[in-house]
Amino acid sequence: MDSFEELEVVKLAQEGNQEAFAELFQTYYSFLYKYILKMTLDPQTAEDLVQDTMLKGFDHIQKYNAQSKFSTWLITIATRLYLDQQRRKKREWFWQKTEIEKLSRSLKWQLSYKGFEWGDVMEGFNKLKSEVRTAILLKHYYGYTNEEIAKMMNIREGTVKSRIHNGMKELRKELMQDE
After folding, report:
1. Which of these, 84, 83, 79, 59, lies nearest to 68 by C-alpha position?
2. Contact, 160 vs 149, CB < 8 A?
3. Torsion 112-140-56-29 (CA) sign
4. To bridge 126 with a disulfide, which of 46, 97, 104, 151 should be the other Cys (CB 3.0-4.6 Å)?
């Protein structure tokens, strides 16, 4: 869907056209799921967050102002939902770290079973804290600027730079240990 067509469908959805929103949902579901799966490393959590994101997008479609792509608006919603979820779980970090390692092993097995490779980078990537992993993913995989990431994550641009820098440093350290 090109930008002009997207804006037309969004306008229809904003006017209450259920079919237009369904078209947006179908267009961006897979894109969102892949993004959230990379953030969470858990298929079930990713599925839940995609549903929550779409529901929130549906409820707040009137607030979309076309200053960014619709996909960027959805990624912003998904990122904030995920980070809110992580903040609530922050007190359980040590338990969660063990759980993430289990989920990572499970995801690694699922991907290798389907013929995908799990690189050493992903081994180190999944050990990063969620807010660091999210910033790196948005920057280096999706190509967003630090300013855009700051808006998506509702943090300062300097914090984004710091998380990316420290996260990359930690990844390099992990990779050097493996050699």
Report:
1. 79
2. yes
3. negative
4. 104
Of 126, 134, 127, whose CA–CA distance to 159 is shortest? Answer: 134
The dihedral of CA 154, 155, 161, 166: what is its sign? negative
Over the Cα atoms of the chain, what is R_g? 17
* 142 within 8 A of 108, measured Cβ to Cβ: no
How many whole angstroms separate alpha carbon 169 and alpha carbon 44? 30
**Residue the block writes with tokens 């409820």:** 59
pTM of the model: 0.62
Residue in the block written with tokens 């609530």: 88
**CA dist., res. 161 & res. 150, Å (int):** 9
Q: What is the pLDDT of residue 146?
A: 95
Q: What confidence tens digit (pLDDT) does each residue in 42-80 have?
A: 899 999 999 999 999 999 999 999 888 899 999 999 999
